[in-house]
Every structure is written in structure tokens, then in C-alpha cells.
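Batch manifest, entry 17 of 40.
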Amino acid sequence: MNFKFGSYEVITDTRELLHEGIPQSIEPLIFKLLLFMLENPDRVLSRDELIETVWESRIISDSALSASISAARHVIGDAGNTQKCIKTISGSGYRFIAEFTCDKNPITIRENESQATHFPFEELQEALVLPDKPSIAVLDFMPIGNSEDGVFLAAGLTTEINSALARLPHFFVIARSSASILSQQSFSSKKIGQHLGVRYLLYGTLEQAARRIRVTFSIVDATQDTEIWSEHFDRSLDDIFQVKDDISNAIVRAADITIEQAEIERAFLIPTEDLSAWGNYHRGLEYKDRTNLKDVEIAHDYFEKAVTQDTRFSRAYAGLAYTYTNRCLLDHKPIKDTDSNMRKSMEYAQRSIDLCGRESMGYVSLGRATLYINKIEKGLSLINQAIAYYPNYTHSLILKAQAISRLDVYDKQLDQSLDLSLRLNPHCRMDGFIINMVRAMTMFHKKQYDKADNFILRSFHYNDSYYLAYALAAACQQKVGKEKEAQQYMSKALELLPNCTLDSCERLMPEAKELRETITQALLDSGMPEAN
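Output type: C-alpha cells
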């Protein structure tokens, strides 16, 4: 069945929208929304009914629904201020009000069809095999409204996001030219994913009003035809280039986090014996940042399997290096007894970098290991290199703050790094824990022990099983004269790590002599053993 209204025609068989006989670019979801409204013109469609039918009961935000309505209006020459076709019924929903006719005989030949839309996609008999690593295509961001600036900004944003993702070596990113061609086709997400051979698609819309823009984007798992993330950004256009950079960085970071978590969840659905190198790697990520030796060893085993399956897997080597450092930090033997693990950590981190010079996680692992053998300035340099390759990797920003705090610098870079990491990843439990610990050490340095203790208490909300937090809480309580509370905190620290001694904590101490001596004495006074 075909629907005709004004100069527009909706072809249901081929899922196309024509304007004066010429095919128009329309997202599959927007086509589905428009078609549902055309099929139900005689009644108001509520928000819940639209979500249940068009989005198949998936959870979406009000802003995402509004953006989709705006996009539907835009592709048929309507607008929110005129509402000649799609009318908003305040407090109730939406209704298609334009007059239209139905034609049950579909048009099969169009003489003025452009060459670009006559691409023989249907000749593809089988879907392309998905790459082993996470794969994504960035489809054209759709401008909403009639602003020329909006059109150019949407195109620029699409290109910027695609380029930023392509610079990340752990992603397989489809070239813009191919993604752009598929953006013009009225295919479902699943069909686009099959034609491009990718698991994930990134859609977006851009709406401009006066000197403000709203960018709404969503990440779709094309294999399941389901939306796994949606968000929007509202910005003033005071500095258009800065706005574009801010939004593209935020979207890239959101895509990285969302897809990584989706890959972890997918890896746990696959039987262990069927895991690929990337499957083992993503299972290892789930355990990498936990603060007990049992989970560290699980992560180590998964990363080791990954590099056995793929000897050139740079990220897996970085993860393996990370677990060797974790062994030293959590087992807490004296430094002389941990040399072997630290050597292996640095060896595997360097291997990661040798295999891929842009591997930010390799630089992070090497910089982290270097910090904990007390080569702080060299470690900071490596971490800065990681940030240069990937400014959105929050753990490198936190490590930078840790390095600065141990150098006794405490300049504005420390706060900037922590603030940015929190802004980029506000809901990560491990990042939240470390950020509060670094801020506690900053306050301890300034001899503001009550504030230091407050940050440590906040850290317990993120991670209540790490001995060092309780040890530092004990030191703070000791400095403010609360000896009983200090001993209670230290008892908890020793319960979590019975072999913990002052000697084994040496590598975690700040470089500044005065601060080191202050913390050391407070730990001793609150009950930490000096040595085994």
C-alpha cells in the first residue's frame, strides 16, 4: 500500500519516501514512525502507544521521542510551528492530520530515480561476516529544520565522530563513503548492519534554534535491531568549533563505554570453549579492576588466553600487564619479592605498544607500572602519551592526577584531570573510588585531615573492600586525635589484607619526604605492622 499527501509519497513495499518522485533520505525508525501515523490518522497516538509499537516497548527518553517526531516532520516538509501534517495534541500525544490517499498498486518504475539510490544492494545474497573486534558504522546525522548551518554542522559532526572512532585501534570502523550511501537507503538497522558487516550503528539528529543546538544520538545493536543507548546534548553556539569538539568527544566516549559493556555482556553469553581472542579479552575486562587477588587471577587467565589465540593482540597484552601490576599492589609483598611481576608488567605493556603505537591502554599500563616502581616523572610522561592518543580514556586522566599528587605538585592540573574524568564517566564505580582516594591524599597533604577523611568515606560507597582506603582512614583519624576510631579502621584494613605491612606499602607512598613521613607515622600509630 502506498500513501500520497501533497507532493510526498510513502512506498511501503520498498520502504521509501518520495518527494515529487525523488527518493528522500529517511532513517528506518523515522519511516516506521511515519508509516504507523499514516495507518492510524483518525485518532490521537499516545506516547506509550508509539513506544510500544514503533520502539517495540524499548525504554527511550522523552527527548528521543520528541527528536523522532521532529525528524518525521522535517522529512515531509512539516515543522513544529506549523504542524500541517503531524499535530501535537497537548497532554495526549500526536496525530497525522494532513489529507492523503491510499494506492494499493505500488509504483515499480521511476524514470527520475537518481543513480545514487539505484545501488544494487539486493545483489548481496549473504550478510558479511562480522569482524572479531567491535565493529561500528556512523550513519549521516540528520539535520532537523531548514537551517543551512545545521546541515553543515550535522555533516561536520558525522565526519568528526567517524574520524575519532577510526583512531581507536580497538574498533573496526566502516569508511564514511560506504556508511553515507547506506544512510540514504530505507533499510532496517539489521539490513544496514548486514550490508556493511558491522554489529553496531550510530544514528544522530541535529536541531538548531537561534544560537542553540540539540544533538540526539543513539547506538543500535544491528544484529538484534535494538537500541542500546540514547542521549542528547544541548549547547550554545558561542564557539561553533569548540561545541563540535565537545559533542563529538562526548559521543565517542559514550560509544566506547556502551559498546565495551555490550561486548562484555555478549562474551559472557558465549560458552568458554567457543570464545575468540576478543571474547576472552572482554571477559577479562570484567575482572580487571577488581580489588582482590582471586578476580585479578581470573582476569589474568582470560588475557593470557587472548594473546595465545592472537599473538598480535595489543590490547590483550596491555590487560595482561595490568594484572601483573595488580598482583603486586594487592599481594603486598616487599618490593624485592615483586620484581618478577613488575618486570613482566613492563615487558607486556611494551609489547602492546610495539604491536600498536597508538594503543593508549598500552601506554597506560606501562605508565602505571612505572609509577609503582617510584619512577614518577617517567610514569607521568607515559600517561600523558596515552592521553595524547585518546583524551577520553578516563583511567589515564586519573593516573595523571595520582602521579601529580605523588610528585607533591598539587597544581590545577590535578583537579582538572579528576574533574574531566568524572565528567566523561560519571557512573563508573572504580573511577569514582580512585577519584575520591586521590582527593583524600590531596587534603592530607594540605593537613586538612577532616576533609581527607570525608573523601575516604565517600570512596567506601564505590568500593568497600580495598584495604588501603581503610588504612588511610585510620591515618586521618589518628591525625585528628581519634585513636579508637583509627584502630578500628586499621583492624578492617588488616582483615582485608592480613599480610599488609608498612614495608609492603612503600611503593604507594608519595615522593614528598615530609608527607611520606607524616603518613608513615600515622599508619604506625594506628596499628599497621612495620614489617613481617
